[in-house]
């Protein structure tokens, strides 16, 4: 990461313990502002805990965290941060219009015209009761309530879980457009890796409460390769992140170093999904790659 890039979040040796269990340990990362960041990892990797610490809803056990240059209080979200938890807390008895008016009373930075425009674009009825909406429509309402605050950083925990494929595509497109047009940083925690790879430009991957990957998508893709072939692998064992078989071939995800000249082996550019899955399968801290 370039030294001139403005950071939304900086964490150093961040740790959170629940009784005897460490949810995060030694977590250091830098999240750039005005980017769409994918936060991925297996269940229990520490994703929700990290988001709670960034949102100021949890206090760290150890280490430091800064959000827009200030330390979160641990008792509430900074005004620049909007957080949509996985449960999407909404009032089912209110209409969508009433939900927007309630949000206007609770948030000093609220933009009513902007929120109504987003609701209309999502084709959610303003007079519809929240409790009667579909899961996908409730997700869109929760997203609008967060964006209407005009945050500097929008955090979404599993926002795609209740959406059908078309709604997922529309939601991701909305997030990408709002980030680009209004300079909003977006942090997305999700298991839907394929969709994340189409819109995210930065990846943070957690494993066992630690940061395994932290860097721009472009740098991570440039720093890895897929090798397909058979026989003795043409790279050193320490460069191999993951190994599998497809038919009669070995498929390796490796760190990129020099050219591969071994006969019978072909080199391909990996997808973000390939890289993330390889590190999730091979949960070894020695292979961690954290951006400077």
TrEMBL record:
CDD domains: ABC_DR_subfamily_A. The keyword Nucleotide-binding applies. GO terms for molecular function: ATP binding; ATP hydrolysis activity. This is ABC-2 type transport system ATP-binding protein. PANTHER family: ABC TRANSPORTER ATP-BINDING PROTEIN ALBC-RELATED. Residues 9-233 form the ABC transporter domain. Keywords: ATP-binding, Nucleotide-binding, Transport. The keyword Amino-acid biosynthesis does not apply. InterPro entries: AAA+_ATPase, ABC_transporter-like_ATP-bd, ABC_transporter-like_CS, ABC_Transporter_VariousFunc, P-loop_NTPase. PROSITE patterns: ABC_TRANSPORTER_1, ABC_TRANSPORTER_2.
């Amino acid at each position: 990461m370039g030294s001139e890039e403005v950071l939304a979040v900086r964490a150093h040796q961040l740790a959170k313990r629940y009784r005897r269990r460490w949810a995060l340990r030694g977590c250091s990362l830098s999240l750039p502002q005005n980017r769409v960041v994918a936060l991925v990892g297996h269940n229990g990797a520490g994703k929700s805990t990290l988001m709670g610490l960034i949102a100021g809803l949890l206090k760290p056990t150890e280490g430091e965290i800064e959000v827009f240059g200030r330390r979160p209080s641990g008792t509430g979200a900074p005004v620049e941060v909007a957080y949509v938890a996985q449960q999407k807390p909404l009032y089912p008895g209110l209409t969508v219009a009433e939900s927007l008016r309630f949000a206007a009373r609770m948030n000093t930075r609220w933009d009513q015209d902007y929120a109504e425009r987003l609701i209309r674009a999502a084709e959610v009825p303003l007079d519809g009761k929240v409790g009667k909406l579909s899961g996908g429509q409730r997700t869109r309402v929760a997203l609008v309530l967060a964006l209407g605050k005009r945050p500097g950083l929008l955090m979404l925990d599993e926002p795609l879980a209740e959406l059908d494929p078309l709604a997922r595509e529309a939601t991701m497109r909305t997030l990408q457009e709002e980030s680009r047009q209004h300079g909003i940083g977006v942090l997305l925690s999700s298991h839907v890796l394929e969709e994340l790879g189409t819109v995210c430009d930065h990846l943070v991957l957690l494993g066992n409460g630690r940061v395994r990957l932290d860097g721009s998508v472009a740098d991570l893709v440039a720093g890895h390769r897929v090798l397909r072939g058979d026989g003795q692998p043409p790279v050193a064992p320490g460069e191999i992140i993951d190994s599998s078989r497809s038919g009669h071939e070995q498929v390796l995800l490796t760190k990129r170093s020099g050219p591969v000249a071994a006969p019978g082996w072909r080199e391909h550019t990996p997808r973000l999904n390939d890289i993330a899955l390889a590190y999730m399968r091979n949960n070894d801290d020695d292979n961690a790659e954290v951006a400077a």
